[in-house]
Target: Tryptophan synthase alpha chain
Amino acid sequence: MSVREAIEQARREGRAALIGYLPVGFPDVATSVAAMKAMVAGGVDVVEVGLPYSDPLIDGPLIQRATEAALAAGTTPQDGIAAVRALTGTPALIMTYWTLVDRYGVEQFAAGLAASGGAGLITPDLIPDEAAEWHTAATRHGLDRVHLVAPTSTRERIALAARSSRGFLYAASLMGVTGERAQVSAGAKDLVTRAREATDLPVCVGLGVGDGAQAAEVAGFADGVIVGSAFVRALMNTPDVPSGLAAVEAMARELASGVRHRWS
Model:
């Protein structure tokens, strides 16, 4: 099943899709993969596999701590591709900063990701104007390419990002770094409305969702709810691996319940 098919299946069930992010390699590669599987067991429809990077642009403090630990332990892009392979049966995207792919080799990375069964890439720092090489490789290997729009994006930039994306359009609900917020950004719903004027792609909202109530709120106007920091927190704030995996699955169940009881 592709990412878009998973989102459309959720829509047929009368709910938004739940997309869960975790960085590979935290606290180690095997545990991070087990945590991704725990997210799926708890109700996540699509997995974002984060590649740790030394200079993240939009990652908040919690994710930065996790990715720094993963890098210190020697986590590599190959570990991300291996994690995708381990998620057979669940659509999995890699979320990465473009420098990592460029250094790895765009064609080589695309070929490896496709061979592992991966769905594609989310590239938060790659603007469509500079993405021709990636678009060509993604098309050749049948991979999704997910670009971001923000509350400050103009109508023209939203249209360009939509035309350049495949799978879904990522609506960053606020400016700044990732992380849970006390409330959902007031501009998120307006951004989704503007994005839908430009595309028939699913529009999924990320940045700031931390619990089931917020997931329900976003599910009331978006096709998908993207959650990262809440899962990292669940894995990080436990005394041992079994407790961490249980906490991740419990968080997924809470969020999955939220997207099924969306606010009007």
The domain at 3-260 is CATH 3.20.20.70 (TIM Barrel). The beta strands are 17-23, 46-50, 92-95, 120-122, 144-146, 148-149, 169-172, 203-206, 224-227.
